[in-house]
Amino acid sequence: MRIWLHHHARAFRQAGSFILAQPLRHTISILLLGMLVALALSTGFFWQRINHWVQHTLPEPTLTLFMTDQANEAQMHALWDSLAANPQIRTFEYISPAQALASLSNSPDLAPALKVLDRNPLPGAFVLHLRDPNPSRFDQLEQEFSHREGIAQIRSDRLWAERLETVSTLAESILGFCALLFAFLSFLLIAYQAHQQALRRQGMHSLLNLLGASSAYQRRPFAYYGALLGAGAGLLAWAALFWALALITPLTHALGALFQITLDLPPPDIRDGGMLLLFSALGGIFAALLGQGNSRAN
Amino acid sequence: MIEFKEVFKRYPAHPNLFENFSLTLGAGEWLNLVGPPGSGKSTLLRMMAGLEKPGSGTLTFNGQDLYRLRAPARGRLRQRMGLIFPDPAFLEGHSLLDNVSLPLEIQGLPRKEQLARAQNALQRVGLGNQSSLLARQLSQNARQRLMVARAISGYPVLLLIDDFYHGWPQEQRQLLENLLGSFHQGGVTVVIASLPGGNLLSPKARTLTLSVPAPHRIGDDT
Predict the structure, then answer these.
(1) Are A203 and B89 inside 8 Å of each other by CB?
(2) Residues A24 and A42 reside in one and the same domain
(3) Which percentage of chain B shows pLDDT scores above 90?
């Protein structure tokens, strides 16, 4: 065990010496890697936040079931139970004809017209909020309720749901592509650096080979080298994200105040930071081993 | 210990370097390989070390076909050999002690034992009081002695030595001769490649004379 630890400690020192031997090159590389990881990270983070704002600020697409005038209590209760048991429906509310009339009466344009009516012409309605606002779910539920007794008409926000989904998919694809591209560029940069280090140390490689060193022994310093570059880039990206949040948050608050909505940008938590470091270091290890690949023992 | 059986080895410049070559070398034997440059002495040593695969034929080390083994197993066998080749490669920025203890570290010996053995090996080649110097600070002759120290530090069962001690002062040649003699008496197999006309370290030992193969005629391969 002590030998194993000693081998690892030596490999770690060697990896450090790779970096210290070319300080300028590695400073630039880590800065560049940090920027790439920060771009990948921030596209993911901001997408998540924008998605959250969109869901909480834009009107949610709903499905409205308008009841017939003749709908009786039993039909209403049966429908209520069926809606409550449906797993596709997140929440629903019943708006009685009186509530609908009261709501319309608040509109200054409609109030005079409503006053001259001798009876309330508005039907009662169930407004459904779907668990998954996918356009196909709207079709499915519309189909399911269209033949139910007591329902006169169904109004579906299917088109609105479809527009929202299309915009969301498009944005997700573009941002996902950018995040993948930045992550892949970081991977390539580490692989290239490791390859250069392997080329610089061909003499060392031949010596270790001559002495019968295993390929694991020869690869280990490169694995640590990749981990150090990856973790360095991850830390830098984390710092860059916090810096960007500090700059942007007052602006989003100001924007939110203009629209009377809350536009918060809560910073990612320590667990996210740990995951970022772990994945950056692991990515760095794989990239470095890939780059070093040609200097294995014969 | 080592057996070459019907080995063929060719290079573009030497298409018939070894043809149907067979050799058996017992444990504890001393073999002088004598031949001019280009006769294949170094190639033979490198083949024995598992560093250069023969074109065809078999090469066994302690009964194991060296080139049928996978690279890690061949590497482990090489850990039991002491290789002294003319091109000394070292960890230039490290101390002599670090350089000599490197093969011991690769073998996985405890650090304390590594240092003790490395110091002892340096002592035996006359570099004991310079163990903290860096390898790059050494003269050519001292570098060669450092290589000897590195080769013997792991208590090898086979020492493969490519001619490098010509031009050494008589006193140091004697030191090397005594050192290799003591290892040989301890049962270590020694193979030394030398140029013809040079003073052999052990003239009475078995000697294999190699000659430069005749130039290859155009059309021989067809």
Answers:
(1) yes
(2) yes
(3) 31
